[in-house]
Structures are given as structure tokens and as C-alpha cells.
What does this fold into?
Amino acid sequence: MSAEVTITPEIIQKHNVTPEEYQEIRSILGRDPNITELGIFSVMWSEHCSYKNSKKVLKLLPKDGPRMLVKAGEENAGVVDIGDGWVIAFKIESHNHPSAIEPFQGAATGVGGILRDIFTMGARPIASMNSLRFGTLDQPVVRRLLTGVVAGIAHYGNCIGVPTIGGEVYFDESYEGNPLVNAFALGLARKEDIVKAKAEGAGNPVFYLGAATGRDGMGGASFASKDLTEESEKDRPAVQVGDPFLEKLLLEAVLELLKTGCVVGIQDMGAAGLTCSTCETASRGDTGIEIDVAKVPQRETGMVPYEVMLSESQERMLVILKKGREAEAKRIFEKWDLHAEEIGQVTDDKIMRVRWNGKVAAEIPPRRLADDAPVYDRKAVEPKYLTETRAYDWRSAGKPGDLNAALLKLLDSPTIASKEWVYRQYDHMVRTNTTVLPGSDASVIRIKGTNKSIAMSVDCNSTYCYLDPYEGGKIAVLESARNVACSGAKPLSITNCLNFGNPHNPEIFWQLQKCVEGMRDACLALGTPVSGGNVSLYNQNPKGAIDPTPTVGMVGLIEGRQPVTSHFKDAGDAVLLLGTTREEMGGSEYLKTLFKVKSGLPPRADLAEAVKLVDLLQALAAKGLLKSAHDCAEGGLAVALAESCISSLGQETGAQLTVDAAGLAPEVLLFSETQSRAVITVAPERLEEARRLIAAQGYPCAVIGKVGGHELVINGLVRVPVEVLSHTWRGSIARRMDAAGGSSAL
Amino acid sequence: MKFGVVVFPGSNCDHDCWYALSGALGRPAEFIWHKDGDVSGYDCLVVPGGFSYGDYLRTGAIARFSPVMEGVRRHAEQGKLVIGICNGFQILLESGLLPGAMLRNDSLKFVCSYVTLRTETSATPFTRGIKKGELLRIPIAHGEGNYYADEATLAELEKNDQIVFRYADAAGRTTAEANPNGSLSNIAGICNKSRNVFGLMPHPERAIEASLGSADGRRVFESILAEAAR
It folds into this structure.
């Protein structure tokens, strides 16, 4: 590509810049942009970087709270105070489009990107999680995607030495061709060590650190801001290639460098690469920045400014140093064998200036790029399909037949089944802090040298969101809070990843708006503000859009006690059901798995009830009364009970239970997905104490039986040997992947 | 007894080993940077797990040329103790300090999981305090732990009692099902002929506190400490 290109309407369109946006660019510059400037505007004003379509909706989410030190949108990740001088920085981000095209590298670089967001804040990453969504495993292409995505996450996370401690894997036809890969990372720091991504102090040198720039990932941000089509395969060069070893060096070097105090500001070159990192740091610092692209290390020859500025080559950082401290920094770069180049300086003219061989290649006010992107009011219209799904009567699907078989079928459903096939491939123990391994409701990381642990969970039932976006968004937050509370933690804050279809479709925009409203109400009720996150729109292909998927990553704090896990412990322990079961079969896994029906009205979540249960679980944990606690979610009470029997390999046990049907049909009692319920166990000698505490908090509770035996028995309805439950649940994904030859051509 | 934990670029269990020794066991331990060839101040060297040099080319293949490995070799020749864990084991194999080689797991997948190890010999400084036949629960986390040696080497290992741990089931049987990576004869760890260099794929430093799921890994480190006190 030559540096001199005449801008034509075709070129403008190719950059996903609308004619109106082009006029705006002209008025900002007072002239026509050149091709480099057009490229810069197009990536910075893409949905991925600017949130231009979602900004107004995102404003609905609560961001304030007494523990919030860095709020959503202020920096690369939110920061939450956990007391005694410790803070955590965490965020979830999507890498959906790259993973659809190239699952291994797409997922790997998703992990790499989110980790950089954390350690550039001065926090050492101590845990990763992810939320993965695919079509159904009977499709060879889906098996190939799952294999590639999991191997990619393992490749990156295992090498860099950050434990991948859990997450969720969800299967639904709506993700066929549009898999979702949402990567979450959490870091730990001392309060005083948190740094900002700001370019301040005219004359301070700007350093480029890390991998050389190539043509990989050209325009990834704008690629992620349009629908996937069959042509998308040709966008493969827009997928980056990751090098976790290099990132491990960057991580250690950056944390060492930040300790010296010679850094003014630092930012990862993620989406929109050098463009985004320069204009965002300058915009935050209310300064200007000047760089010379000829000084940028390049791994390919003949690259022009357009390419250097838009490349999304991985493992690169922009570091602004205090003038005069360069030698100190260089010693650290050399220690870690890292390549660093001084490429420019901070200026005070509030202009981002890109030079190339003595010429000015681009000159733009950074604030207009970073903060003043156009904001759109998209039209929202209630989708037509809802009239039909709301009116659906679940009974019309048919009778369940043998209830033992129905339970086994649910346990065999890959969405419900054990994800051991997945997390065995992740190093989830490195750093020796993982006190609750993957497979419980929440995973838990202890903080050495303190009495604190951090519980975390990622959740979203997208079927609920499809059938009722408001309730679905609400439930995503409430369920993640319940999961965290089941481990005994106090929910603190969420990060979210809003995965939706094309926002220009009013029905899709309505889904987005309603989901966010639901999340807002749940966050307000729980007192868990949103610390940050990301929006991924355009998740659709010619077959249609994904189900609305507002993934929630909830973080909670445990102080002064051991975490609680979800599996039954000892024979004789009393099993208690907290909460009331109602006839809520719409959108259930029961309907999906047994009858291939995705319809009906999903469960309603009562906010007051949900908050009460979260508080109650913490109160029980604080008194040391919980031997186990497990949330009732997909598959209802029967699945929750079965999981508690079998989820700890080698410690499987039965349970003998009698649940008051209260006039409910057997399949409702067993499989209804009524919210705000949990199954807990209590040692028999402490049962009365537990019951008193529960009664004092006024929460519905029933003692339904005891742990023990070799079968799960529920009323006269279910009687299945534990080993059958275990075999069915534990082997579900492996049976589909290994038997069918799930390996991909990697 | 003073421990030195070698740090290569890409090591990621260095801190865990250091923590196990200095935090959980309360023994002096220091990091040794890979560019440092002098390791004379230490009694026992720990070559930790991770992905040294990204494990590019082949696991451990680049690390063996690191300046510190010359020091490790001299240290071993003096009869002092060396323990290589996971990637550290791979590096010791590549350096020729231990016999055999490592292949990719037979599943072709990385595997992270608790396994059961059967102690095959107490006659090493690393297992002196563990009875032969005793079972330990310790995690593994690797993509290339499929130990291989030719027939003659395997026979040597057997003859000289150099096989230290084997993968076993809960009843102590070394079955194929209990073998997580396809390793020859279910081998999880071996020592050299002089018995002062020990390599194993499982991570004893990850099993040092009950709150992590097992404290069985302490037995290995406690054996080393007991050896020093002899």
C-alpha cells in the first residue's frame, strides 16, 4: 500500500465510516483526512473502541460505590478496594470475532489482551476465567471451535503462569457460526501501586516496548464491529498471533518498572494498537503526543504509517517515562531481554502528531478521537417473536416420561454437564492460591499473607435473555451473586461483557437496552456497581443473531474463613432447601434438552428475595454452618442435588430426600428453574442453630433429608445410583469430543 | 540447608517453590537469575516449572544452554542436591543430568489434575521420609510429561532403583487408566545414579497446605530437610 491514497466514497465505506461521520471528521480537521487519518478515525470510532451505539445505554449502569477506586471507563480496568491496603483490578472482554475465524489464536490473544489490561494498571494478574459459548456439539465445526478455543486459552494462560480457575461453557444453536469467547482476568495490587494510563508532562519521552509491529491484526477493531459473513474468512489477517512467552517477560518487566516510579503512564496496545494507546493516553492527560512511526520496531518491510498505526500485533506497550529516568528503565528492559525504542514525546499542544520520514502523516486532536466519537440513539423496538414465546404453554411440549431418564438426560446436556474436559487443559493451580478449584459454584483464590480470599464467577443464561431480556439481564447478575455467596463471599462488584447482534436492528437494540436495565436493577439491589467491561455487537451471521448475552463476572470477598464448596461432604449431614419452588418452566433446560423447545416465559426473579438469600448465605457461612452450598440454576432442584452428590471426584455420595411437592407436578418440582434457591448441608449437631438463623432472617427453608447412601433418592420420583449420575455428568463432553474425533487441524 | 530457586525467562513456578520453602516450610530460599552462573552458596537447587524460553523448539531445549545450567552441573557433580519439577525435570533431561526424554502427552492435551503417586524407593534424599509403596496425592500440570527411555535405559533405571515415583490409582496399582500422559512404565519421577539429582513431573510445591487440597508435597521437601540434618 502506498502512503498517498485518494479518498473515495468506496474507501470511506470500506472503513465502516458513514457519510455523516466523514463530514464530522472533515469539520474536526478543517480539511479532508488523508488515508492514515481516515484509518485512525475509523478504528477509534468503531463500536469496539468508542461504544458509539451502546454508550447511552451503558450510562444506565451504576458505577459508584464506596469501594470503587477506579470507575468504569476511567482506565483500562476498574479497581476495587478490598481493605487493608489491598486492591483488585478486574475486567472481562470479548474476543468473539477473531475466535470465530481462527479459534486457537483468537482465544489465545483474547487472554493475552485482558491480562495486559490488568498488569498495565500495576496489578499482578492472579486469576483468569472465561465464558465460552458455542453451537451444539453434534456439529463437527463446533467441536473444532471448542477444541481450538480451549487449546488457545490453555496455550496462553498456562505459559504465562496465571491460573485459569473456571468460567462457564454454554451450548446453544444461536451461537453456531458466532461463538463467544469472553476472557476475564483479575489482578492484585497494593493501593499505592495502581498506575494510570496518562500521558502527562510535555517533553517526557514516549517508549515503545515489546514485539515488533507487523501487518497482523490490521483493523481488528473495525473487523469486530461488523457482521460476520462468508467473506469474513478472508479477514483472517485481521486475527493476531500471540506469544505468551514474550508477554510473560513484559509482565515481569512492567511490574518491576512500575515499582521504580519512573513511569508517568503506560498502556497496552490492544484494539487499534498504537493509535488507541497514543490518543487515549494523551486524551486522559489532556496533552498532546508526537511519535515517529519510522522509529517503531517493524517486523515487515515497506510498512506505511497507515499500517503501523492500525496494526494489532500483540504483546506491545506504550510507556511514558519521566524525563531523565530513561537509563533506569532501559536496565530493566535489558534484564528481561525486551526490545524498547523511544518513538516520541509528550507535547502540550493537545495534538496527536504522527511523523514519518520528516513528514507529518497524521495530525488529530486526541480528545476528538478518544472521547468525542459520535454517539447514536438507536431505535429500540420490542421483537415480534416475543408475542409467540410469551404465550407458549410449557405443557404443550409433552410429558417427561421416566423421570430418572429425564434427570440423566439433563445431566448429559453439555451446558449442564461437568466441564472437566475443558478445565483439565487449563493450569488452574499455578501460584498456589486456588483454594476452590473449578467445578464449584464460584472459584476462590486466597491472598497470601492476609485473611482474605476472592471468590469469582461468570454467568449468563442467554435463553432467559432471549425470552425476556429484562429478567435475563437481572438474573445474570443475581445468579453470579448467588454463586459467589454460595462460597461464603460478599459480592462486591461486577464486570460485564455485552454480546449482542447488530445494533442497527431495532429489535436487537431493544434486547440490549432491556438487558442493561435488568442488570442495573440487580446491581442496585445488591449494591454491586459495574467496574467496567466491554461491548461486543454485530455477533450475527446470515443465519441470524446470537441470543442476547450480557455476561457477568462477579467478584466477592471472603475474610477470615475458609470458602464453602458445592459438593456434599459427610453422611448424615442435613440437606436443606432454601427458597420456594414455583411453576417456572419457560426457557428451562428441561424444555430445551427434552423437547428441543426454547420458548415460554422464563423465571421471574424477585430482587428483595434474591438479596435476602445472598445475605443469608453469608450469614450462615460466617457462623461456619455451611458444609456445602449450591445454587439451583439450569435443570432446577434435581440437577442441583445431583451435582452436589457427584461434583467432587472421589468424594461422590448419595442423598435420601423428601421434598414437599406443595401441589406441583413432579417435573415442576424437579426441574423448574425458580430463582433464589440454594441447596445447603449442615452438620446434624448444628441443624437447630442453622434453622434458627434462617428463621430469624425470614427465609423459606425446608429440611429435605440427609446425605448418604449410594443413590440419589428424591421422593418416589427419582432413584439413581450415584455412579450412574457421575458417569453421565462427568463424561458428557468427552464422549462427544473424543469419540467423534473432536480434534481440529491445528 | 539453603535452597536456591533458578529463574529462567518463562519460569512460572519459581515463586511457588520459593513460597513452599520459605513460607510454608520456613527455610531460607533465594532466587537465582538464569544469567548468573555462580550457585556455590546453595545446598539444594530447585529447577522450577514453567515455560522456560517459551518452551519454543522443545521443552527445556533452550534453557539447557543458559549460563546458570553450567553452575547446576557443577553443583550436581559435587554431589549436592538438585530437584527439577515439571519444566525443571524436562531441563534436567535435556541437559543430560538425568536419562531419557519427554514426549507430548498421549492425549495431545495439556492436563492439570491431582494424581496419585506411588513411592517406588525411599533410598533417595528426596524420599527418605516416605515409605516405599506409600501413596501421595500431588497435582500435575503439563503438556509434555510422557516420559520415554529406550529399553536399555529403562532396565538400568530399574536395576539401579532410580525410579522414584509412578502414577497409580487409589489402590496403588500402576494401571494404564492411572497414567495421565502415557509415560513409560507409569514413570512420574526418576533420580540419577548418584541419587542426588531428582526430576519429577508432579508439583510437590503445589501440595504444601491442606487448604490447597493436599499437603502431601511437603513430604518431599521434609525428606530433603531431614537429609540435611543427618
Notes: Chain B has one domain: 3-229. Residues 3-229 of chain B form a domain with the Rossmann fold fold (CATH 3.40.50.880).
